[in-house]
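#struct-queue
[09:14] JT: dropping the first one here, sequence first, then the structure tokens:
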Amino acid sequence: MPRSRRPHRTALLAGPVLVLALACPFPAGASPAGLSPAAGTLQPLRQEDGRSAGRDFRRDALRKNREENWRLAARLALLEGVRQALGKPYAWGASGPGAFDCSGLVLWLYGRIGVRLPRIAVEQGSVGIAVPDRLRFGDVLLFRRRGPGWHVGLYLARGRFVHAEGRGRGVAVSSLASAGYASRLCRARRYLR
């Protein structure tokens, strides 16, 4: 009777998050699909080009894991940037970290995660992916001002967004329902998938 191998754990570190994967062997004598018993051991199924099918699966799983970890790290960095920017004063043309205008705040937040955006609010609301349905954390919101020009902010959650409000108010979190922001919302763009 062949000896069965004991399960072992492997740890993959791809970014700031540690993911544990548990490798479980098949019961002795089992022949799962894609594997065939030969000389008392299970041999991996080969692709047409002779490579192991398992190698491509592992590579794809690692790539997906890295992408998911980057997304999580990017969201955490955006959230930490929001925390640091709250309460900073408004200054026209400033892009942080000591003071911000609305587009400078969005530019600075996304710059922290390596995403390059245009400097001007209307351009920030024109590039990226159009938000098709529900807003998600990190979406860039473009508003019409009551006067000439545009205003931009970063969506957080539950109808709230962060923005550099204007002179005397600085960086703050506001509700889309307050001050008529919902009626002035023109479009939303997504830079994080």
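[09:21] JT: and here's the second one, same format:
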Amino acid sequence: MPGLDGGLKGLDAYSVVLSSYSAVYNTKDGLTEQVDVVSGGNNVVTGSDQVVTQDFRITTKIQVTKGTELLRYSTVLGTGKYLVNAVGTGCTFTVTNGLVVVHSVTEEKAEIKLEINCEGLATYEQVFTVVRVIDGVDGTDVEWIFKRSQTEEDKPSRPATSENTDDYVPKGWTDDPVGPDIDNPFEWSCKREKKNGVWGAFSDVYLWSKWGKDGKETESVYAQTKILATPSYTWSDVDNYVPSGWTSEPQGVTSEYIYEWIMQRKKVNGSWSHWSAPAIFAKWSKDGTDGTDGTDGLDGWSIFRWYKISVSCPSTPTSAPPSGWSVDPPTGEGIVWATECHGRINEGGSITYKNDFITPVQVTGQKGDDGSRGPFMTFRRKYDSTKQYTGSNTHVDAVYTEDSSGNKTYWVAKPTAGIFSRLNKVPGTSSAYWEAFQGQFESIATGLALIEEANIAGWWFSDLVIESQNRNCIILMVMLMIIHA
């Protein structure tokens, strides 16, 4: 859409940054600190006691702008707003008004992956990393080293030597994270521990932080012509380049310049593509002369339908309206049949029938027996080989797999699968444990939708939990299912 693409360039581009991208958490310091409450430059006291509060030590602030306009954090998408989806590993956290607050760290390296949706038009990813260190526990010290690379394939090897001296840094490494940038988008890390006064070998190298790339930018240009002839153009790799004879905004068509053309190009990884082939954007329309009135046409024939209940197919009527038939479908038990013929309604309201009846067709059948109750389904999100899944006549699990392009395929456990896990039971078309859904749930017209998270009327639904928007009420779906059973 040219109007949309044009609005996401230049001064209208989105920018998503974090106030910090990593933090080191020392267990001896804790995750909170006590601070005095101050009002108007004075400490707040009650009686003779200073009033204090607790602040969290590890936080980062999400800042989103569109050009010079600061977007607002929201749980519902809209103009001037951004929405955040976040997934953490090795920690617990909350996101409130764009502030990410870490409440606990359970692993040596924790990550919070943030997906920021800007006005529903563009999505950016950022990662906040927390490293947990234990200082002086059981006589063990820990030292970290860091190194950057231009590509992920250039991951550095684990240092072969570890001298038994404090603050030893191998050549090419640093003792503090430098942070990734556009030239060195990958930063790696490894550690070593000191036990009983002796420094051990360095650990395996793992990815510490990764530089996030901007999304594609788009530029559009426009040109007018008097005749249907493609306008000429030139190209340059500079931003906001407009070829001679073209404009950066559409000018509209006129009675003289009856054609307006458009070209587009996209910027990927800092370089502009070539212009697309010129295409007609708008065309001037001229009023034609009125045509002559046509002759009156003949009255058309309508289709008239009648219904009847019968155990077997009734004989075809020969004259309308047929005896024993009704114009509305009858109610009650039995098989309903229908027949029809053509007729014409005259000016006086009477009907002339052609009596060209069709052989009666069956509309409904006999009432069948109730079917067996199907199994209850639980949506378990993305398939994880470390998890246990169930397929039985009373309960089946549903998952999805994702290819390298982000395309999802949904699967449901077969009722004969039983309780299972492990890598050799990955969903697939030849799996004895899984079968593919009919359709990929791009539409909910069937009344069935698999939704990972939803915000409905101020309630947030996610991971078997219903939570109010202001976080003062939480309902566990597991409790509701137990009560229902």
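[09:30] RK: nice, looked through the second one.
[09:31] RK: Residues 299 and 348 are 14 Å apart (CA to CA).
[09:31] JT: good to know. Residues 1-9, 440-447, 478-485 have pLDDT under 50 and may be disordered.
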